[in-house]
Amino acid sequence: MSMIQVEHLSFSYDSQQEMLFDDVSFSIDTDWKLGLVGRNGRGKTTFLSLLMKKYPYQGKIRSSVSFDYFPFVVADQEQWTIDVVRSIYPLVEDWQIQRELSYLQVEDDVLWREFSTLSQGEQTKVLLAVLFLKPGNFLLIDEPTNHLDAKARVVLMHYLQRKKGFILVSHDRKVLDGCVDHILAINRQTIEVQAGNYSSWFDRFETQQEKELQEDKRLRKDIRRLKSSALRTSMWSDKIEASKIGAADKGFVGHKSAKMMQRSKNIAKRQQAAIEQKEDLLKNVEEMESLQMKPLNHPASVLISLDEVTPLYDGKVIGKPQSFLIEKGQRIFLDGKNGCGKSSLLKLLVDPKREHRGKIQWASNLIVSYVSQDASFLQGTLSQYAKQYEIDKTLYRTLLRKMGFERWQFDQEIQSYSDGQKKKVMLARSLCEKAHLYIWDEPLNFIDIYTRMQIEKMILSSQATILIVEHDIAFRENVATKVVVL
């Protein structure tokens, strides 16, 4: 057992207007299993990079352990997987990696295949297995669930239950609840450590958040009152100066004015000190404001019907034939292993011209809002993106602010955003669109827990009809009215 000590850590990027971390201090035990949570853009990946000394920073980070980061970059993906494993840990024995892979429910024949031929889920599991085999390391695991389906996430959760000595960045509440014993929570410029799993931390967070919000409201009211008083003092000072002009007895008026001016300055100084003291007490509270969507009401009760439908790609069948109805007001989740054709089916329902077998019937004049799984095509500014999709720019920015965007980020190129922020760009656009049916393909990939819960509450309070692929089990359990297994 040893400690990782962070002392007075401060850091910001040159291109960023605000500090990411400001005078942060805490300690963690290297035997702990920590979940790292926070809004997109608050610095989760940056903090892991600071632990690995990738950037210069102010303060100190003390540790007697070495760090390994997931995902490990595999430069030559044409190698056999066993060679990739040995490049990470040359001393590994075949039986050791085979044992770890069995825990992760991966057949060991993947070791004698080219790494590039493995699915993303298999690659994730192989890299985690070998990194945990390295003795004495503390593992920094950055969002491993993004390429895993729901069943694979459960397997990963059980695997991590057996381990210790890691920081896990994940936005999957079920996974965090099942495998961590401490939470590292990044709020605005701060990092807090609390014992327990995600749910126990969130219960405390909600209670503390409500207290801090109420305290902030009181402080802001006091600040407004003090500033109003300071303004009156300033106006009084101006009147004193004006009274000197045209006075008959210059000496007497000047002496009296000087005394009054000094008194005014003393009052102003005390008022400014009180304002600054109140502002210092303001908390950087991570709020979860309500989101809204305004779906259109279609006269038909069935929006889309599928009868023995299978998408085709270059003439080849993708997945099994599917028959189901999408009825108004339903929230349908498509479930199945990676590669079973979920995304292909969604694309087909958005674009009737795609190749397919079977029969699909769309309700007349059906308006669909679609969010794709891929965000790599995004470019330009938010204003350009809003103009392209003909959505209200003010409403769009308001939604993004509620999702955790800072105002200064609005003028940045979308290419510079994190993966989670790019997904928010697409989701907020969809929320601005008035549609009869919302089709979302893994919309929560990379998106923080706070925003997931905002979206969850919004969906439950709306009458929206949604067809969605999403592997977040907690989200699905809370939102779904119907699950179609492919």
UniProtKB/TrEMBL annotation:
This is ABC transporter. Residues 261-291 form a coiled coil. It comes from the Bacteria. CDD domains: ABCF_EF-3. Residues 4-213, 304-486 form the ABC transporter domain. Gene3D superfamilies: P-loop containing nucleotide triphosphate hydrolases. InterPro entries: AAA+_ATPase, ABC_transporter-like_ATP-bd, ABC_transporter-like_CS, ABCF_ATPase, P-loop_NTPase. It comes from Faecalicoccus pleomorphus.
